[in-house]
Amino acid sequence: MGLAAVVGVSAAALGLTRLVPPLRSADESFRDLAIAYFTPPAPQHPGIVLVTLGEDLFATLACRSPVDRGFLADLVGTLEAAGVRAIGLDILFDQPTLPALDERLRQRIQRASVPVVAITALGDTPLTEEQRRYLGRFLDGIPHGHANLAKDRLDGTVRWHVPRGPDGLPSFPARLAQVAGKAAGEGAGGAAIAAEPFRIDWHARPSPDAPPFPTYPADMVGMLPRGWLAGRIAVVGTVLVGVDQHRTPLSVAGLSTPGVEIQAHALAQILDGRTSRDLSDGWAVALVLALSAAGVALAVAGWPVWLLVPASLLGLLALWAAALALFAQGGPLVAMMAPSAAWLGGIAAMTAHLSLKERTDRRSLMQLFANHVSQPVAEEIWRERATFLAGGRPRPQELTATVFFSDIEGFTTVCEALEPEPLILWLEGYLDAMVRVVAAHEGIVLRFIGDAILAVFGAPVARSTQAEIDADAERAVRCAIQMGRELRELNKRWQAEGLPAIGIRVGIHTGPLVAGSLGGLRHMEYSLLGDTANTAARLEALGKTVDMRSSPHCRIVIGEPTWTAVRDTVAGLPVGEMALKGKRKAVRAWLVLDREGEEARPAAEAGE
Known about the structure:
- By secondary structure, this protein is of the alpha/beta class.
- It has 19 helices and 21 strands.
- The strands form five sheets. Strands 14, 15, 16, 17, 18, 19, 20 and 21 form an eight-stranded mixed β-sheet that branches. The chain has a six-stranded parallel β-sheet with strand order 4-3-2-9-1-8, with helices on both faces.
- The model is unreliable at 184-190 and 598-608 (pLDDT under 50).
């Protein structure tokens, strides 16, 4: 069951955290938090520089939107002269300005000595037909790639990059990396473009107040030292509030991220050949299995609920803290929803199973004992169930116990004297009173055999010391004495009601026996097997031949092992060694005397 719980909980944790939107969103939020606040510092990327067009620049340009094409042409020339490796223009040329300026920019791009890549838009981008036609004409002969960002449908956050569009068109970063690789001598085909989407591995900042890439205003580029730009890929784009800004994991710690910076992060990852720092799928599955197993083990430990709940929550907090510490030290980023679900699910599943099993076991035990034992005995049976319970039923075991067998004297005569209904009511009253006496002495009534009662003292929890065995024997004998006293009161009441008075015989024997449950699902009984149970029944039958009584309404005959256990606490007379039916060896028997009985002592003295 433990293995099944581990596998089932692990599968559910992995599946639900990927398929259920709230769980997946929570997982992504944890990733975002870790990336924003716990990414270890790293130097600015050495191969990329951002050239930004901000509000201060636009205040000086003749044309704000579309961006002044003459300024862009001059900027491309300035970057080319600075010795950049390639230029990426994250500006969409979907509208005309002055024809002369538009053509000047096109010529500058096409004749540049370094690769210049522009952006285009995929088919689902909301552009008019006229915009698309103009964009196509402007980009004719110019390397380009789509700048569309992959946003999560749940919260609109950019976490992934799609290097190829549905029509095979490379993305802007992928195309820029390709031409930059070609410029760097990587072969005629340039750098290979990945086909599958990948999770963006956001480049770290050197410090909280420093950007991940060297960033310069476009109007200041001409004044920069050549070494600040030479050999790098310059990505040009706008940084205006509310324009081309998007939610990313970096936004958790600040404002939205400009689109040009997002493109630079994807470009850096492609150039470096880095993959996401997420824990690999294999290790993620292994972690989920391990935590599920740990949760199951914690539940199996059997801690009380008041301790299990805080331990579970503390364990969960420790897991999250460990995951963040690992990431902060440069390790992989562990998505915590599936491991957390595995940990809590393992605890919950096994706790539920154990609770259900406990109820089943309790029900099984109660079916056997509940109606015939006192509360302390019931609690002891349940407390010690692990020592004798297996598969929802008591396991067979050898133990030493005291067997008690009682019968009504002259029951046949009583049956003949009463009608069926009064007979049953009378017998129920008798049995109910006797069962209460047995339970009060911590015995277990196993069954009724007509008017006979079979009980045991010292089962099903096996005794481990001789003192405990002797204590069971004494309780059995005192139970029989008390039953005789109880009959005195019952007979007085019955006689007043016109019902017959009765006496009982009791046989008690202590010794080894085999105890266990017999039967199936429809009917199951706790049974005693062995010579000890048979001897108790024979001793009860022997009481028919004994003239004296233990008390006016009871004869109690016990075997030698029981007498040895109680001789210092109760009075008795030897009956002698007698061959009992079914036994090869003679059994020495004793008649117990009730010293406190008003009529018992004269009878005892008469027999001495």
